Amino acid sequence: MDRSDDREPLVEIEGLRKHFDQSQGIIDTVLGREPQPVRAVDGVSLDIYRGDTVGIAGESGCGKTTLGKLLVKLYEATEGSIRFDGRDITELTREDEREFRKRVQMIFQDPFESLNPRMTVYDTVSEPLKINDMVGGYDERRARVKQVLEDVGLGPAEVYLDAFPDELSGGERQRVAVARALVVDPDFVVCDEPVSMLDVSIRAGVLNLMKDLQAEYDLTYLFISHDLSLIRYMCDRAGIMYLGDLVEQGPTDDVIDDPKHPYTEALFDAVPDVELGAERRRANATGEVPSPRNPPSGCRYHPRCAHIIPPDGWTGSQEAFRRAYQFKLRLRRGELDAEAAREEAGEPAEALVEQGLTLDVPEEYRSEAEIESGGHRVDVGSLDLPGDARRALTEAAEAVLGGEPDAAVDAVDDVVTTRCETEAPEPLPSGTRKVACHRYDDDRLEGIGTDDGGLSAATAED
């Protein structure tokens, strides 16, 4: 989107963190360990401009909902700042916080849980008016509730005022939840998976309603969803979240049509192609998402990344380096099976190297030897491995067979290195967006035009 009009952000998020379970438990105390908090949100920075619809996408557990709750002050941040309309929301007086509650609302994922089953529609929608002391008396309050119910498509409103949630369909319940958020005439609404619990047949109606309401109520939206088609349909801008941080953000069409971050690529690879007869292309990502209690160092995506960066001077292929790095990770985790290697025909050390170089990826990304062996071995001769790397892998395998795991890791440490493991990438401008990936470190001053998502040349040079 063009930011040449120099609009000020409505919401400014800088270095935001939310860690849970930070206290030291009994086991940690006995073992003398430092507590390992869950790093639900860990360093998010994002600007949201008035009138925009911004989407946050990512896998389950990446921190999307926690981010939304931080923005509406349902959680207090561990670190970082959130500025709403120029004010830091962590430093509000009681009166300022009451005003903030009027201007910022949240629509929750499950209308079956977010509505009190003992309250009528009128009571549910009018409650924010009472709490915020926004209207004079019962008649004025009732008129306001009826108006909002009509606006969200629940008309005639008289039919719904005295109904209880269990008398309503899922779509009607979510419209009540939307009415409850809008009755105080907010400026900013966080929508957490607002249609994921609804039948597919009525989702489009609710989303179109929310688009119409945005124009009518002059709203700014943050949509949280794992549904990439929803993000594309509803949002001007999109941010991709992984293990508590944003790895890519920019205009939605650019992020979806031309993803820059390897995780964004993998996320979209995992979406089935809707064209008739097209085969599903699965994500070229290694292994599972790490625990948010102990995220990887450097770039958090690097253990799974298809584009992990080799060290300077690496003369082999990038694919060979990726496999060598996976070998190193298996060494550290003690996953190489020495006994299985000894049972193989030929040299045990060679068999262990073949075992350690395999990739835990979908079949379409495996080598022929991996497919034939069921993912248990790879043909080392087919890989473009430099001589020093091959010797280091063999030395490490021999150390494992000799019962010396520390010596095995030492053997590959100086050869199989990557900046992705040691340096956390900063989100830097790349074309129309910001990308937190070392592959774009040299692009920070390139390709930055007027449609740069709020970034200026000065920002790029900071």
What this model shows, in words?
- The protein has 19 helices and 12 strands.
- The chain has 462 residues and is an alpha/beta fold.
- It has 2 domains: 249 residues, P-loop containing nucleotide triphosphate hydrolases (Rossmann fold, 3-Layer(aba) Sandwich), CATH 3.40.50.300; 108 residues, no CATH class.
- The strands form 2 sheets. Strands 6-7-8-3-9-10-12-11 form an 8-stranded mixed beta sheet, with helices on both faces. Strands 2-1-4-5 form a 4-stranded antiparallel beta sheet, with helices on one face.
- A hairpin with a 2-residue loop joins β9 and β10.
- The two termini are 22 Å apart.
The CATH homologous superfamily of the largest domain corresponds to P-loop containing nucleotide triphosphate hydrolases
Count of discrete structural domains: 2
Quick one: biggest sheet?
8 strands, mixed
Number of helices: 19
Q: Would you give the CATH topology of the largest domain?
A: Rossmann fold
CATH class descriptor name of the largest domain: Alpha Beta
Low-confidence stretches: 444-462
User: Strand order within the widest sheet?
Assistant: 6-7-8-3-9-10-12-11
Structural class: alpha/beta
On the 0-100 scale, what is the average pLDDT?
88
Give the quaternary arrangement of the chains. single chain
Shape: elongated
In short:
With 462 residues, this protein is α/β, with parallel strands linked by helices.
Strands, helices and their partners?
Layout: E1 9-20, H1 26-31, E2 38-49, E3 53-57, H2 64-71, E4 79-84, E5 87-88, H3 94-103, E6 104-107, H4 111-114, H5 121-131, H6 138-151, H7 170-182, E7 188-192, H8 200-217, E8 220-224, H9 228-234, E9 237-242, E10 245-251, H10 252-257, H11 262-269, H12 318-333, H13 338-343, H14 348-356, H15 368-372, H16 387-401, H17 405-413, H18 419-422, E11 428-430, E12 433-435, H19 457-461
Parallel strand pairs: 3-8, 3-9, 6-7, 7-8
Antiparallel strand pairs: 1-2, 1-4, 4-5, 9-10, 10-12, 11-12
